[in-house]
Structure prediction request, 379 residues.
Amino acid sequence: MAIPFFQKFFQPKGQSVLGIDIGSSSIKIVQLRKKGGKAVLETYGELSLGPYAGTEIGRATNLPNEKIIEALRDLIKEANVTTKSAGISISTGSSLLSFIRMPDMDQKQLATMIPIEARKYIPVPITEVALDWWIIPKEESTFSDFEKEGAPAGAGAPDNLPKEKSIDILLVVIHNDVLNHLNTIGAGVGLDTSFYEIEIFSSMRSVVDQNLESVMIFDMGAGSTKLYVIERGILRASHTINRGSQEITLALSRSLGFSVADAEHIKRTIGISPEQDNKNVREVITLNLDYIFSETARVMSAYERKYNKNISKIILTGGGSLLKGLLDLARARFQTEVVLGDPFSKTTAPAFLEPVLRTAGPEFAVAIGIALRKLQEGE
Prediction:
């Protein structure tokens, strides 16, 4: 079994909250407590899921509930989590997000009409899903075709509604089976999980500052890389690239004869760093990144052409962003600012831990965002 890394800093004296991010290759948790108006970091941890599936660390898995419960229970114990109050993220692939345009009407009428309109975009009976929606403020609303993988055709705004007589709605749909799955996991480890949130909104909360410019979150996980464009705090576009950091690990293993475990270690510690004598490793990794970067550039270009706005910054998140040398390569490839996400900057922690947290931060964007929302529930 993989040994999780964890830190515990404070004995909690007030209400603490736990943010949980269950990914395909690992689980991340963050426990926060509010003190003096600040989010105090109490403990955090990560545990690889590969060993629970009988495979290597870093491999994407598809575990049954009982194995996820076992892994989460182990991680909670190792990280000395002290709270039962929790929120759990929902993967973007397990949800449907779409922008729809509706005639301008009051809230009561909208509550009646939106479920009827939503049937056009949902491929299952409306009784089988949980549905939520938000009105996009008019000053923010430059209607976006929500380019999400798997979204139904025509999920954008209907052209027959003049903008001045309509309102734009962000529609969020989650199948009941997904919620039941997460309910089972939360209950299985004895947590009080009061809410679930789609991962992109958690990441936005933890790594995107409030500004007027368009930014992109580049979230590289084990099995895929997800791209999100955010403007003025509002999600404008989404795209999933069906390649992630696992592809790089497996390519290193196949091409250079490393074990998968050794390839994962080399990827993180040597990677494409120019100061290392690693020409063969660099060539394999760069070849795999070329496709991901090309797709990213295509999505950026399409957005910029459509809205005549430049993406001012790319924020790297996810475990794949910890690839050694990725930041420098991304900066060389894209004609815009590229930074590593720093979600721990939204928390208070001992100064001596800042370098460690800054390095680990991109991987914990979702878990921290979930915990921050949970803290806000008590405001």
About this structure: The longest strand covers residues 38-48.
